[in-house]
């Protein structure tokens, strides 16, 4: 009776062990665990691929191929090569660093309150005015003054821009620069733009590029992105800052000799 119970217990333990170490394949007596296959399937699924029998078959084939090559590398003693050992150690460190950062991010997410506070802080820079302007850019001040005189006599700005401007990108559109914040331009141009009235023409404005004749077509209140539009970007930035501070704190506390 006792022998029967012992046999039953041994069978149960053997079956349990077999289940715990289920293999997707065995290569030259070395088992490739199912957990390795499941890990790769999960990685691929996170990138949008569907878990299918065909996908698992391809991954299994790759795992078998890799095991064959690893065994061959071991036969040749490549694990003992100093460069290989260094690269293996660096890879191990990278994996551990990634795991540590992921664990920190998971347990220290950016809160909604932090996101809204950051949005309110930068919202000031998203407001203000936008200007729709045209310009004609020339090299010499004398030529710029001549163009201003021609414009005042009734010449069309668009025609002179196409004919005279050395800024070929805007010249083909009659000098049109579209809607922009003054900060998008060099300071001399941006400051002149802010001082202008709608529909007016500037005197030549000197910058590092030459002399600009500016025509202000329109002005409007800037409409920056709202909170929901900026939220993903803010989340990435704030989470990145948190990780940097966490890493810095660990480094600062470490005893480095």
Automatic annotation (TrEMBL):
Residues 128-218 form the PpiC domain. Keywords: Isomerase, Rotamase, Signal. It catalyses: [protein]-peptidylproline (omega=180) = [protein]-peptidylproline (omega=0). Pfam families: Rotamase. Its EC number is 5.2.1.8. One of its GO terms (molecular function) is peptidyl-prolyl cis-trans isomerase activity. Residues 1-22 form the signal peptide. Belongs to the PpiC/parvulin rotamase family. This is peptidylprolyl isomerase. It comes from Chitiniphilus purpureus.
